[in-house]
Amino acid sequence: MNSLSYRFYDEKLDLMYEASYSTNQEKSDRRLTELLQRSKLFLNVGNISCYRIEPKF
């Protein structure tokens, strides 16, 4: 079974949130959806996607 992992980091690159899903599992994590909208992908290696929260100015 393959899985996808998401990791979210704050402005200082401290880990804030992590979630993993199997590739056939439907994603219904509200926090994940919110963080994906507020962040930017900065690293994608294999099945791990790392995002950084965009600083608010």
Describe the structure concisely for a colleague.
With 57 residues, the protein is an alpha+beta fold. The chain is 16% helix and 49% strand. It has one domain.
What level of helicity do the residues show?
A: 10-25%
Low-confidence stretches: none
Radius of gyration using CA atoms only: 11 Å
Number of DSSP strands? 4
The major β-sheet equals:
4 strands, mixed
Structural class: alpha+beta
Question: Order of strands in the sheet with the most strands?
Answer: 2-1-4-3
> How many helical elements?
1
Mean pLDDT figure? 87
Range of strand content: over 45%
> What's the end-to-end separation, in Å?
42 Å
What is the 3D form? Answer: globular
Describe this structure in words.
- With 57 residues, the chain is an alpha+beta fold.
- The chain has one domain (2-44).
- Helices cover 16% and strands 49% of the residues.
- It is built from one helix and four strands; from the N terminus they run ββαββ.
- The protein has one helix spanning 30-38, and strands at residues 3-9, 15-22, 39-45, 48-53.
- The chain has a four-stranded mixed beta sheet.
- The protein starts with a strand and ends with a strand.
- The mean pLDDT is 87.
Highlighted features:
globular, alpha+beta, 49% strand, 57 residues, 1 helix, four-stranded mixed sheet
